[in-house]
Amino acid sequence: MTGVEDRGDPLDHRARRPVRRWSGDWASQEPPPSPELEVLIPTVGRTSELAVTLAGLAAQDDPAFDVIVSDQSETFTSANEPSVQAMVRVLRAEGHRVDLVHRPRRRGLAEQRQFLLERSSAPAVLFLDDDVWTEPGLLSRLLDALRSLRCGFVGSAVQGLSYLDDRRPHEVTTFEPWPGRVLPESVRPGNTEHDRWPLHNAANLAHIAATLGVDRDAWVAYKVAWVGACVLYDRAALIAAGGFDFWPGLPAEHSGEDVAAQWRVMERFGGAGIVPSGAVHLEAPTTILERRVDVARTLFTDAGARPGRTPSSP
After folding, report:
1. From 17, 154, 167, 225, which residue has the greatest number of CB atoms within 10 Å?
2. Which molecular function terms from Gene Ontology are attached (predicted)?
3. pLDDT in tens, 77-89
4. What is the domain partition of the chain in residue ranges?
5. Does domain 34-301 match CATH 3.90.550.10?
């Protein structure tokens, strides 16, 4: 059972006041509402990208959300960079709690994500990379999808808009909408479900969306191999599946920890992507320069490994 309740249509905000305070209420002393979701952002060494990411969040009218940033830069970049601090102040003025945490010891992204998960408390948590701009209305669509589908996670795969004119019909042949309820699936390297991964290359989802005729502010759920950079989890489902608790058995130089966590959630609760995506990759150089271990392949394909434990676990 998942922990996110269906509270009606969060997109039906035309008849009510948006949660986001407008500039006329920025000086209000009224306490902010309890968050329906928390945005969890791991970051290191990024300034302009993080500022753009926070600016995207500041443009979201709904739902009520808070933000936790875990900063592993040596100099606590998020607390010192003017552009980042400006957007933090905007978010707080709009009624969002923003928590900046300095954690200079780097033990890998899986540990970072587990720390953020343990620090969160809202029924839904959005893991958002620090180089992603979110379209206004995206958080509402994601939460609407999670509540409607009642699965473990929904994601908006990031699009690189420099590829908008690069059409790749051979990479979208595996696109398959969910016809109704999202069901648990098992994804492994080499199986049919895994073959969906090219869907999220370049600007493929933007091209798919153009063929679907989706109404404005609506979404279509589809089957995924995994979703990177912008994923909304039912927090209870993610914790039940183990979260990122495999991190102690990993070297700091790893990747694919998000994939491994999603595969564990998908096996128990199911997961989906939504289109249109509305999440834009800033196409900045990666900060993960060493990737000695692919966590998903290690966790799910090592001899004797079972989902939910690392190969080195007893």
Report:
1. 154
2. glycosyltransferase activity
3. 899 999 999 999 9
4. 34-301
5. yes
